[in-house]
Amino acid sequence: MSKLSVTLLFIGLSLFVVCDGSPIGASSESNESNEVDEFLTEMREMCKNNTGSDAAFPNFMQSVEQGMMCAAAFDADNFIVDLDKLTNATRSAFFSNYCPKLRTVAACKDGILTGMKPCLESDDYNIVEALAGIIPDAVELICKNDGSIIFQMEDETRLECIATKVDELTVCATSIASTWNDDSDISELTPEQCSGLINFRQCIKEKLDSCQISEILGIYDLFHNALFRMTPCAKNTVVPQLELVDNNALV
């Protein structure tokens, strides 16, 4: 299976888990249901091809249903209501209440991965596992310092500052685009492409640092670090970590 197919497979799994309704029910005419049907068809074929048995796919389906039940225990409606009312005065109570619950929900993926593992080749499973690992990392990013990333993203002074950097950020993106093409495979990146990834991140970081909004880089790092470890770049380069600048008010 190609690396792109694996990525699309993971996206399909995400759609499947969040889709409203039973995964085994009749097909809907909605786009989401069509995508779920396509995902299930592909999974059934892979389970059969990789195990030589018809038993792996029902086991996978059972793991998904259990994962959905696990996630359903989280009160998403109240979470959204409380999030809409979030202020600096309520942030400590909000994150103390919801972060343990979010961590529990993030762990719901583990059973699904276990059920999926027999259906995938080893290399493909490693990619899906790495992408799924973004979920708990995202929870920790949101919960860090009682949601400091959320408050940075809503700070008008910082947002006005970053708005002045749009042209510079575009230059960052253009520089990495010049080293990539439609046939680029993350498992076969060239040294030039590896350098491009590092330089792109550093370029973005410099612009965010200047506006004291560096924590937003953590969103990019969720994907960068997960995929970077699967590239040849990881053999010769330390995976970059987010370094926060001083959070004093802008002057």
What topology emerges from the helices and strands here?
Layout: H1 3-18, H2 31-51, H3 56-72, H4 76-84, H5 91-106, H6 109-116, H7 122-132, H8 134-143, H9 148-154, H10 156-163, H11 166-177, H12 191-210, H13 217-228
Distance between the termini: 52 Å
Q: Can you count the beta strands?
A: 0
Task: Bin the strand percentage.
Answer: under 5%
C-alpha-based Rg, rounded: 21 Å
Helix content percent band: 55-70%
Order of helices and strands: HHHHHHHHHHHHH
- What can be said about the biggest beta sheet? none
Mean pLDDT: 81
- What are the segments in which pLDDT stays under 50 over at least 5 consecutive residues? 1-8, 18-28, 242-251
